[in-house]
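Morning, I've got a small favour to ask if you have a moment. I've dropped the whole record in just underneath, so have a look.
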Amino acid sequence: MKANVAVDNTTGISLWNDPTISVTARVDALIDAMTLQEKIAQLYGVWVGASDQGGEVAPHQHNMEEAVDLDALLPNGLGQLTRPFGTVPVDPALGALSLARTQSRIAATNRFGIPALAHDECLAGFAAWGATAYPVPLSWGATFNPDTVRRMAAAIGRDMRAVGVHQGLAPVLDVVRDARWGRVEETIGEDPYLVGTIGTAYVQGLESAGIVATLKHFAGYSASRAGRNLAPSSVGPRERADVLLPPFEMAIREGGARSVMNAYTDTDGMPSAADENLLTGLLRDTWGFDGTVVADYFAIAFLKTLHGIAADWAGAAGTALRAGIDVELPNVKTYGAPLAEAVTDGRIPEALVDRALRRTLTQKAMLGLLDPDWSPVPAALDGVDLDDPAALRGRIDLDGPENRALARTIAEEAVVLLSNDGTLPLERPRRIALLGPNADEPTAVLGCYSFPQHIGVRHPGTPLGIELPTLRDTLAAEFPDAEITVARGTGIDDGDLTGIREATQVAREADIALVVLGDRAGLFGRGTSGEGCDVDSLLLPGTQQQLLDTLLDLETPVVTVLLAGRPYALGRAVEESAAIVQSFFPGEEGTHAIAGVLSGRTNPSGRLPVSVPRGPGSQPATYLGARLAHVSEVSTIDPTPAFAFGHGLSYTRFDWTDLTVDVQEAPTDSEFTLTFTVRNTGERSGTEVVQLYLHDPVASVVQPVQRLVGYTRVELKPGEARRLRVTVPADLASFTGRDGRRVVEPGELEVRLAASSTDPRLTARVTLTGTERHVDHTRRLHATVGQEPVARA
């Protein structure tokens, strides 16, 4: 065993504990003092669950792992604690106490006093019992509002940090390529620019609270064949570079993300966890990322069990280390004894262990975990008597009024009004028929990574921990004078048709029929949306379409409301519903938001982050397609959507006029500016979402017909107008050329100022001149948008 001798004679403390010297020097001193076993211990985690009595955490026994003996592990130290709050229901204060006591034990047991780094899920809010359940990422995308998402992420981060968590496993930056994939609800949308800007805002918010944001899943997970979870990905290098990678590039460069998680999938036979060109060559050598790469759960072991590129656990560990994975999560499997044995006998160089260790210890040092004044007691328990756990219960509120208000704001901004014949907003209906499987279901607003759906379902009898009013509850408050009659009609996916007769009768006797359809979030087949809940078509689950079609045959107007995790083909409802309201798992305040749109209290401003298909079997389809991906006379499959990416209606009207372009020609290394006016010509305040699409008529390689390169929200009172000035760098026209390098080519461009990908309002043509120009990851990523008020006429 190495001696613990690196002591600063001036301060009398170990060099690695001295905050007055550089982090690099501290980490170097610590690595020099460590044994091989102590080094490796910093490279894995242990999955734990906090104690609801405030005692130490208990190892979580997962069916994919053997039992863990903490007493045997801790003398060498421990890199991470996996999901102390997101494993079992626990009162937040007692969970914080449990984590603090465990951290004390970890630090006291190893020679260097190093605590573990604790991580948890935060995909739609801190995944802890009693924490705010915010809208899912697909709803973030529907807001087209990075500022609100940034505020939400900061609030999530503050709650996590207050109870002792250091790292959050979010955001998901996968770009939707096939809506049949079960994890669509976890994504932000089908466009890389939207995903990148919203995802970067989330990273900025989380990091501002001191939480390490983790970008996932790097890269290609969402491009799996047939939308099947963990299926191989068939994308080529150009699609990967121009569609799948830009959100990660943006979130690292502009968001300051400090961690990245690999994707499970393989691309052209190369698993991401084994891809040195991806995890080291691109991520670190090219983009300059200097944080940690953590394994998606069990991904290193999967190199042996699922991918078949490693013969044993040591082979899997060596392959992942060489590729650039620093930390094995969620547990110790390959980076434990197998790695130690392989290093000892020379199969794996110790230098690879040191490289990963340097990154993990640097992060711990920057989090203050090596400082001499580090305390295991988190901020939420400062000044509290920790010897009386019973008195702590209920002391920490992770779902306070500010959180709920923010959750409602996001939910309101994310509701998308797909169609409306004038029926909405409803004006004092006397009799409302509230129908469908999600009409009176509290958890219909939650995604699969919310605590109640992810963990709570495995603990029947445990309270939800948060208030989840159903749409029945919020409509009763929104329309206090109306008679509301509820009939389920059918289940989400049970195929039961026996309730349709009752629903039909209730609808006949009503002034308006609200039919509330969609998904039940769950994991691995427990739901119709969520991880491992892939589908073979985009028909509404179960017999919901039969219920909807039966109601459409009546004379009573039908408003279709969707609480779902993915877009669905709606058949006749596209043309025959009086209105269609789309909400993607809008969180605990979601039914308030929907009720507000139905009543007109809220003017909808959400826009589709994914296209809504016209037919259930046209996948994979996305607006971001080349000419051959769109409808043609040589195929009987028409991928044209019923409602396009970026679409969303309002209760007011907007006119776009007076477009001017400052130049007709611009060099490939410059920019050009568009100026135009947006006016609210309706009778109430509203928000228009201006979208900027680029069309490149002639390029050296096939390009999408158009792609989003900018957007902004414009809030206007009745009669008010704004003059928008949009400066477009030529860099935005870049793409991956024939030689694999990103290029800006001379030639004509068409810039479409649009209300959706199929609704251009103004079009400008500008010719890029000069020579072909190569750009890299330092290129300009955004158009700049300014707004100035226009004097009323």
Summary: The longest helix spans residues 92-109. The chain has a mean pLDDT of 95. The two ends are 83 Å apart (CA to CA).
